[in-house]
Structures are given as C-alpha cells and as structure tokens.
Automatic annotation (TrEMBL):
Transmembrane segments: 80-102, 114-137, 157-181
Main location: other
Organism, as annotated: Sciurus vulgaris
Location(s) in or outside the cell: Cell junction, Tight junction; Cell membrane
Pfam (any one): PMP22_Claudin
Protein name: Claudin
Family from the record: Belongs to the claudin family.
InterPro entries assigned to the protein according to its UniProt record, in alphabetical order: Claudin, Claudin10, Claudin_CS, PMP22/EMP/MP20/Claudin
Gene: CLDN10
Length: 229
C-alpha cells in the first residue's frame, strides 16, 4: 500500500467535495457591508439562485428562471464548474481502480496507468474550477472598483474561496498521483526461486569430490582375524 497514493486520494476526494459544495452554494457574491448596515438587508447571489435576507431573520431565494437572460460570465462559470465536478467524480473512480490496495484494475503496470489517468483528470478538474472562480471574482472586483458603475456593488462570497481551495486540493492530488508511477517503477516485485532441499550426504560427497580423489574404505577389512591376535 502506497502512502503517496493514499494522500493523493484524500486530497482529490476532499477537493471534489469542496467543488460540489461551491457549485451548489448561493454565496458567490454578497452585498457590501456598508450598504448592508444602511438598509439592514443582505443579498447573496450564486450560479443558480439569488437570495435576500433581512435583520428580522426572513430569507427568500429566487432561482434563475431562464438561461438566456443570465449574463454570459455566469453561464461560463456554470459550464466550468459542472465540468470540474464531473471530472472530479470520474477522477475519484479512476483513483480507486488505480490504488495498489484494491484488487481491481489488473496488474501493477495497468494500475500505474490508471493512477496516472486519475491524476490528469484531477488536475483538469482543478483547472476548470480555478478558471471559473477566477472569472467570477474578476467580474466582481472590476465592478467594485469601477467609479462609473452606479448599480449595486458586491464582494467576494464564501463559495469562491471554497472553490479555490477545492481546486488546489484537486491539483495537488493529481500531481501526487502522476508522480506515483515512479514509485511503482523503482520498487518492483522480488521473485524467489526454490531449488529444493539438499541432503547432508550429497553435500559431503560434492565437497570431497572437489578436493581430489575420493577413496572409500571397506569397514569390514579393518576387523579381520589378525586384529584379535
């Protein structure tokens, strides 16, 4: 069991869970604190719904009813986050098949290839999430620091930071999976051959035979009639 693969699986699956949470969250952007103090209301916007709440505790969300009225950058972020979640799911499946501790996946060479594929998929998932969150954050900061923008200004929501963290975990896990192939090539399986048991008599025979002439004496000739006279 490889510790590097276990740590890579933990990073990858943890990043995948963070990407799912960020995609489903409605806190991609929130209203600024200055406007919230004046109006006592908070507005949260996500990829799928717009939510508003007030100081009394009431909270209401309204989904985006149509795709065509949604701004272009939101649609792009939707596609990127859906791609990131899908790639993270398949990366987790490939990672389980590529682990050394599992019995599925074939030989060690096949498992190494599957683990490398899982690493590449995790890296692509992290890049998609990083791109989507950065695109959304760039739109928010551009509007916030634009002096000519007179509409409601927003700040970065918690979902963006969760998405960035999940993307980083996926990329780290993917890199570890890709480098785990070198561990498989450096530690090949050792083979042992059984030569069979050798008797003591045969080994002695070989030893004496290697020294020179091997003479055998008849034990019956040592005890003839003259020995007792």
């Amino acid at each position: 069991m490889s510790r590097a693969q276990i740590s890579a699986l933990v990073f990858g699956v943890g990043g995948f869970g963070a990407l799912v949470a960020a995609t489903a969250s409605n806190e991609w952007k929130v209203t600024t604190r200055a406007s919230s103090v004046i109006t006592a209301t908070w507005v949260y916007q996500g990829l799928w719904m717009n939510c508003a709440g007030n100081a009394l505790g009431s909270f209401h969300c309204r989904p985006h009813f149509t795709i065509f009225k949604v701004e272009g950058y939101i649609q792009a972020c939707r596609g990127l986050m859906i791609a990131a979640v899908s790639l993270g799911f398949f990366g987790s499946i490939f990672a389980l098949f590529g682990m050394k501790c599992t019995k599925v996946g074939g030989s060690d060479k096949a498992k190494a290839k599957i683990a490398c594929l899982a690493g590449i998929v995790f890296i692509l998932s992290g890049l998609c999430s990083m791109t989507g969150c950065s695109l959304y954050a760039n739109k928010i900061t551009t509007e916030f620091f634009d002096p000519h923008y007179v509409e409601q200004k927003y700040e970065l929501g918690a979902a963006l930071f969760i998405g960035w963290a999940g993307a980083s975990l996926c990329i780290i896990g993917g890199v570890i999976f890709c480098f785990s192939i070198s561990d498989n090539s450096k530690t090949p399986r050792m083979g042992y051959t059984y030569n069979g048991a050798t008797s003591v008599m045969s080994s002695r025979t070989k030893y004496h035979g290697g020294e020179g002439d091997f003479k055998t004496t008849n034990p019956s000739k040592q005890f003839d009639k003259n020995a007792y006279v």
